[in-house]
């Protein structure tokens, strides 16, 4: 297969992000965040900004690089694989896309802040009851089911902390003190942003699933029973193989969904990819816990970081069930419309 310029740039960005996260988003960093009772790290966020990852798809006129969301699919995958506790998808992908397509007078100033790593944006999609990273956000974009967007600054939000399943991806209940500002942006751009949020979550989820697989393979390779590695037993091999196949397919579907998010069938591709990634993550979670035995349930062992991240991301921007239901409604409506013509 011939590698295009986009493929080359995407691969280079993925390699850059993997190296950066390997050094600065280690298990020790994640445990430090847990010990301090926080998720978002200004230090890690600053490094992502310095590397040009946060500003990647912001236009050059606003201090960005001017790439496309498709360039960041590998970056999102690595963020999931390293369980990075940062609102990268929300800020650097969805918000950058929406603000970049808007004629709102203040959009340029916010884009400049996003590109510099000086602003965090939270996203509420289709009236979701919980919002990730709202406590850290300077701005919130409420993307409605009617393809509208309202903008709220931090002082217009009333935030109630919740006991999040994944403390490294905290969610809160958010109420509004004002009506906010209706963002002037086309319905097509909003639909594109919705597809990006769902497809981006699929990329994050596929990355987390891959790490669960890696951790489990490492463990069953080292753990010995009856004088042989546990991983040498056929029953264990089959479970590992099942997860490996689904993890690989989830990755392919997620990366493809990002590429096609702007197409007419962008939502369908994103919904299908996220639903499949949810299935893969569930299988990886079940087998990871079973094959790790009792140690997998302990706080001291780091498996729980990815177990919780996989469950949290599975619920983000649509569960497997809700997305399949929405996909079915969309397809049936098209079939019904075609039949009536």
Automatic annotation (TrEMBL):
The keyword Nucleotidyltransferase does not apply. Its cofactor is FAD. Residues 201-331 form the Acyl-CoA dehydrogenase/oxidase C-terminal domain. It comes from the Bacteria. Keywords: FAD, Flavoprotein, Oxidoreductase. Gene3D superfamilies: Acyl-CoA dehydrogenase/oxidase, N-terminal domain, Butyryl-CoA Dehydrogenase, subunit A, domain 3. GO terms for molecular function: acyl-CoA dehydrogenase activity; flavin adenine dinucleotide binding. It holds the Pfam family Acyl-CoA_dh_1. Residues 19-118 form the Acyl-CoA dehydrogenase/oxidase N-terminal domain. Belongs to the acyl-CoA dehydrogenase family. This is Acyl-CoA dehydrogenase. It comes from Microbacterium rhizomatis.
């Amino acid at each position: 297969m011939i590698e295009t310029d986009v493929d080359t740039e995407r691969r280079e960005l993925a390699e850059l992000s993997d190296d950066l996260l390997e050094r600065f988003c280690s298990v020790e960093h994640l445990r430090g965040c847990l010990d301090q009772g926080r998720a978002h790290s200004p230090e890690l966020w600053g490094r992502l900004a310095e590397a040009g990852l946060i500003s990647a798809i912001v236009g050059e006129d606003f201090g960005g690089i001017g790439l496309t969301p498709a360039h960041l699919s590998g970056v999102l995958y690595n963020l999931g694989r390293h369980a990075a506790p940062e609102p990268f998808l929300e800020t650097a992908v969805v918000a950058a896309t929406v603000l970049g397509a808007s004629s709102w007078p203040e959009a340029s100033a916010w884009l400049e802040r996003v590109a510099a790593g000086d602003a965090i944006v939270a996203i509420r999609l289709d009236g979701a009851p919980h919002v990730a990273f709202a406590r850290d956000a300077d701005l919130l974009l409420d993307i409605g089911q009617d393809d509208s967007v309202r903008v709220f600054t931090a002082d217009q939000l009333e935030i109630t902390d919740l006991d999040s399943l994944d403390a490294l991806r905290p969610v809160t209940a958010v109420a509004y003190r004002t009506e906010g500002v209706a963002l002037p942006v086309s319905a097509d751009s909003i639909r594109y942003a919705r597809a990006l949020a769902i497809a981006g979550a699929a990329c994050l989820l596929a990355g987390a699933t891959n790490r669960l697989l890696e951790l489990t393979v490492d463990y069953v390779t080292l753990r010995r029973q009856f004088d042989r590695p546990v991983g040498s037993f056929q029953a264990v091999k089959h479970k590992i193989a099942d997860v490996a196949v689904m993890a690989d397919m989830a990755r392919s579907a997620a990366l493809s969904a990002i590429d096609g998010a702007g197409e007419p069938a962008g939502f369908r591709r994103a919904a299908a990819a996220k639903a499949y990634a949810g299935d893969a993550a569930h299988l990886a979670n079940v087998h990871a816990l079973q094959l790790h035995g009792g140690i997998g349930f302990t706080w001291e062992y780091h498996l729980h970081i990815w177990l919780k991240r996989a469950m949290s991301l599975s619920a983000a921007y649509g569960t497997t069930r809700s997305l399949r239901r929405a996909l079915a409604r969309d397809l049936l409506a098209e079939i019904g419309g075609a039949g009536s013509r």
